[in-house]
């Protein structure tokens, strides 16, 4: 073998091409053959591996895309299901809230309608304060009227509390409705996004690379948390719907019971008025009967007094005659002034007439006293009849007409 230095020297000296031995030539050729074969084999394996890898990746990509599409479809179905549930609950809650609003309107109308019977009951009490004399009595009508005022005021207080409870339930219903609508809005957006994502293909024009997209958002939730959130909204809506139904049923019951209470008391007051008016009419009739009797007796007593006076006057003649005769007979002379039977009878006549006149005058005095008593009774009876007429005007005219304007159907 040549040394490297010798070759260099020969090249510098002779400047001739390098010469190789046949063995070197053969070795070089074999080396190139082997290297080429190795490289070709490696390349063939790489091509085969590349083709296999391409097929594998293509299959994996397609499988993954199919799985992703399936997952998106499942997600869309899940969102659609919960969206349908939310829509159902929202519709039910809206209907229930409308029904509760209708009940609130009934409560407001009931409160408004109760103002009239309350004012009438109070006005009846005020009117009855205008009764006078003995008729200004704390009777059954007054007790029933006061009870009616208490019943109506109690009913109004109960209805007012129920109205406040209804307002609070309406607020809770609307709160639950708000969360359902918000959840529905979010699900509609999510469904739109996922529908669009599911509709994309490898050939969709607006697909592109997005930087830093492979990540989990910090505010994201787990599927179970997502279900729990929606289920909580549905459960809350169900709870408020059931509470609202129970309240509507309670309102129906309250309106029915209070209507019955008000009507029952109204009937009690009217019945008390009916009995009291009849009682007053009967008393007035009896007073009028007694007044007529007293007037008749006054007339009879006046005739009696006139008769007594006339009789007393009529006795003046006989008394004067008897006294004149006695006086005349005193003029008889001497022994003729005798106490004869005629003298004694004249004396007896004067005494008799005087006694009878005294008795007549005493009777006249008694008759005049009785006449005064009768006239006092007349005035008392007439005054009491006027009291009864005033009472009847108040109860049978003013108050009865007022009570006729009360509507029987309050609510």
UniProtKB/TrEMBL annotation:
Q: Where in the cell is it found?
A: Cytoplasm, Cytoskeleton, Cilium axoneme; Cytoplasm, Cytoskeleton, Flagellum axoneme
**What sections of the sequence does the record tag as coiled-coil?**
40-103, 350-391
Q: Which Pfam families match?
A: Tektin
What protein am I looking at? Tektin
Q: Which family does it belong to?
A: Belongs to the tektin family.
The cross-references to InterPro entries, in alphabetical order and at most eight, read: Tektin-like, Tektins
Assembly, per entry: Microtubule inner protein component of sperm flagellar doublet microtubules.
- Output the GO biological process annotations, alphabetical, semicolon-separated: cilium assembly; cilium movement involved in cell motility
Q: Name one GO cellular component term.
A: axoneme
Q: Tell me which UniProt keywords the record has, alphabetically.
A: Cell projection, Cilium, Coiled coil, Cytoplasm, Cytoskeleton, Flagellum
Give TM segment ranges.
none
Function comment = Microtubule inner protein (MIP) part of the dynein-decorated doublet microtubules (DMTs) in cilia and flagellar axoneme. Forms filamentous polymers in the walls of ciliary and flagellar microtubules.
Q: Which domain of life is it from?
A: Eukaryota
Source species, please? Answer: Callorhinchus milii
Main localization (coarse): cytoplasm
């Amino acid at each position: 073998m040549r040394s490297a230095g010798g070759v260099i020297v020969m090249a510098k000296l002779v400047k001739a091409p390098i010469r190789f031995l046949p063995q070197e030539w053969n070795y070089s050729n074999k080396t190139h053959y082997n290297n080429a074969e190795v490289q070709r084999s490696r390349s063939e394996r790489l091509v085969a591996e590349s083709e296999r890898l391409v097929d594998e990746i293509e299959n994996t990509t397609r499988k993954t895309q199919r799985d992703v599409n399936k997952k998106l479809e499942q997600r869309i179905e899940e969102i659609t299901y919960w969206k349908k549930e939310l829509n159902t609950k929202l519709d039910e809650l809206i209907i229930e809230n409308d029904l509760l609003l209708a009940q609130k309107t009934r409560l407001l109308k009931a409160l408004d309608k109760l103002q009239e019977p309350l004012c009438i009951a109070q006005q009846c009490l005020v009117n009855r304060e205008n009764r006078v004399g003995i008729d200004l009595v704390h009777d059954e009508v007054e007790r029933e009227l006061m009870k009616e005022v208490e019943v109506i005021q109690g009913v109004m207080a109960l209805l007012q509390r129920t109205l406040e409870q209804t307002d609070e339930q309406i607020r809770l219903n609307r709160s639950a409705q708000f969360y359902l609508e918000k959840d529905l809005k979010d699900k509609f957006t999510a469904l739109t996004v996922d529908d669009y994502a599911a509709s994309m293909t490898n050939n969709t024009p607006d697909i592109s690379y997005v930087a830093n997209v492979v990540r989990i958002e910090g505010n994201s939730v787990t599927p179970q948390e997502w279900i729990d959130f929606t289920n909580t909204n549905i459960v809350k809506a169900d709870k408020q719907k059931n509470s609202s139904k129970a309240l509507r049923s309670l309102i129906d019951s309250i309106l029915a019971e209070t209507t019955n209470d008000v009507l029952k008391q109204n009937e009690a007051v009217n019945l008390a008025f009916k009995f009291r008016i009849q009682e007053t009419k009967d008393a007035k009739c009896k007073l009028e009967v007694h007044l007529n009797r007293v007037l008749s007796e006054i007339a009879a007593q006046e005739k009696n007094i006139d008769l007594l006076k006339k009789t007393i006057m009529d006795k003046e003649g006989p008394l004067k005659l008897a006294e004149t005769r006695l006086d005349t007979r005193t003029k008889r002379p001497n022994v003729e002034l005798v106490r004869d039977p005629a003298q004694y009878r004249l004396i007896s006549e004067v005494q008799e007439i005087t006694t009878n006149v005294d008795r007549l005058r005493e009777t006249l005095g008694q008759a005049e006293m009785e006449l005064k008593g009768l006239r006092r009774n007349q005035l008392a009876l007439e005054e009491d009849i006027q009291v009864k007429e005033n009472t009847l005007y108040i109860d049978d005219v003013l108050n009865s007409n007022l009570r006729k304007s009360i509507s029987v159907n309050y609510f």
